[in-house]
Each structure stands twice: as C-alpha cells, then as structure tokens.
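Weekly modeling sync, notes
Attendees: S.R. (lead), two postdocs, one rotation student

Agenda item 3: backlog of single-chain predictions. S.R. asked that every request posted to the team notebook include the full sequence so nobody has to chase files. The rotation student volunteered to paste the first one in as an example of the format we agreed on. Action items at the bottom.

Example entry:
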Amino acid sequence: MRREPLITAGVITSLIASALTLLKAFGVDLTADQQAAINQFVAILAPISVVVIGRMFVTPIADPRNGNGDPLYSYQDALDAVQQRGQRG
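Predicted structure, as returned to the notebook:
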C-alpha cells in the first residue's frame, strides 16, 4: 500500500459495498435507500480521504522538499544537469 497510496479509494469503496452486502445477507435490516445512501457517502468520502492521506506519501514535482522542508534540488542544480546532458551529446 505504501508504494501505491492512491489506490486506496477503490479499495475503501469496494470494501464498504461488500460489507453492506454481507450484512444484508446475515439479516441486518437495511433498505435499498439506506444502502444507496451509505454507498453514496463512501463514494464521496473515499476520494477525499485518499487525497488527504495520499499527500503524506507522495512528493510534489513542482517544488519537491524533504521532511525538513529543504529543497531536494536547487534550480541551479537542475540547470547544470540539463546542460551536462546537452554536452554529452
């Protein structure tokens, strides 16, 4: 899960939908409207929670920084790397 933090929205939604079906099979009295309302709530909540949780595990590419807030590379380092690639051919 750690290498694919954003896959969790589908997993969360599927687990809840399956749990509702399982509860209904074991006799929990849920109407079709109640099931639909729960599924709709989860469908909205799952992507939001993935964004909030997923942001902790991914590095933004616009301004990547380490855990201390220091830049992972400077603009000058990136420019030097591009120029060196150009010189190599």
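Discussion: group reviewed the output briefly. Residues 1-58 form one domain.
Action items: rotation student to repeat for the remaining queue; S.R. to check formatting next week.
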